[in-house]
């Protein structure tokens, strides 16, 4: 069978021959559903209690210098999940669950995650090979521990990922990042939250039971309960079932107090515009990379794939028995269905509130400054401009007409930018299309959103970010400090269908094009054979 140049580059870059993809077609924008479930198997909103991913256990060591390290083990494996009432759904899961276990860790405590790939050789339904590369999204990790797309761990192998955790408190997440199959692997379940705390955040915001991670995604199902996958010729995947922590449209019981919700959009393509059914505002207190300088009160907010927003919802004003819904007003160029306007519900209960906890009734207005938010444009030494495009002939997504295939073909030397270590630059991202929005993610760095179409960023964006929503006909300007590490890091669209086909490039910090790289992301810390199978 003849293959195209692009296919040859994909197979050469991954080193493994993959198989075709089975899809479940979906109807147009006004369709009632995308799933092929019978009416009796189709889940209904607000019938299932919210569940939380369990915390991941660890062992602690302290070295001779007093440095504390927490050691974790995660195993990627094929499993089934009870998403639907009567049917089991096969998933790929960290420790066999979706979302994966939640990792909570204090700032300046190092972590080593022993990541085992115990997946089958090929995806049981979609047929492609299953090497993986795990990215801790939002962590300033060394290149070899960053989940570089071609740094692959084959089934039967493991890799020890080292994370420094020296950044201020923030909501991170870990997910698969393997070259050209990130969308399928994340959609199949390879995602989980990783939360860093520090004394400032602990003193300002609710903790424990009242600090709630919410991982929001969408899915479509075949008649037998398996996940359907249709990325509509690489444009995007939009399911008709909204999942929160792996459950369809769940319900959470809440006390009459203030709660903190860490909302992660883990959808392959869908963006949301969240709002409360009561019309009451929420208070945004943190963005992707941590606390905002000042809290922002908003009635709704636009939330793209991979973005994290931490919001406070005040349930004090509601009588016991009140139901408050988190809804989705959606955005342009999503594909919406009968119930994609619903996310989850909160049922207010009459349980006694612990008023000794000062966060029960406090909404702080001043939070914490951080390095990217302290920067000014005067610190920038260079401005770079990038155009986000789609090639209608090849159906490939590009940044400045370049793709990850060109990076592979160059022996991983080709870069879109080569900032010096500890320099500040302005990056301008332009989306000239009316038909697509793009959540753009820069690895390694946090940044400040300077402007959107020449106007100030939205109020809820006025905090440190690592993903920026570049909407239709929008131009955003970012202020970026490049550090703290040298090496090569990826930039890509977090519509994962776009990333895989092939809207991803890389930048190189503090190294010349032919300079030896002690932290080469592929060769300096390769995966090893796992002697313990199963």
Put the structure in a nutshell:
Helix content is 7%, strand content 37%. With 534 residues, it is mostly beta strands. 48% of the residues are buried.
Describe the structure in your own words.
The chain has 534 residues and is mainly beta. The chain has three domains: 19-26 and 49-198, Immunoglobulin-like (Sandwich); 208-360, Immunoglobulin-like, CATH 2.60.40.420; 371-509, Cupredoxins -  blue copper proteins (Immunoglobulin-like), CATH 2.60.40. It has six helices and 31 strands. The chain has helices at 5-14, 182-187, 199-204, 371-374, 404-409, 496-500, and strands at 59-62, 68-81, 89-94, 100-106, 110-117, 134-137, 157-163, 170-176, 191-197, 211-219, 241-244, 247-248, 251-254, 258-265, 272-276, 282-287, 290-298, 300-303, 308-314, 323-328, 342-348, 382-391, 396-399, 423-431, 438-442, 447-452, 467-470, 475-482, 487-493, 504-509, 528-529. The strands form six sheets. Strands 12-11-10-14-19-16-17 form a seven-stranded mixed sheet, with no helix packed on it. Strand 1 and strand 2 (68-81) form a beta hairpin. The longest helix has 10 residues, at 5-14. The two termini are 36 Å apart. The model is unreliable at 1-30 (pLDDT under 50).
Topology:
Layout (H helix, E strand, L loop, with lengths): L4 H10 L44 E4 L5 E14 L7 E6 L5 E7 L3 E8 L16 E4 L19 E7 L6 E7 L5 H6 L3 E7 L1 H6 L6 E9 L21 E4 L2 E2 L2 E4 L3 E8 L6 E5 L5 E6 L2 E9 L1 E4 L4 E7 L8 E6 L13 E7 L22 H4 L7 E10 L4 E4 L4 H6 L13 E9 L6 E5 L4 E6 L14 E4 L4 E8 L4 E7 L2 H5 L3 E6 L18 E2 L5
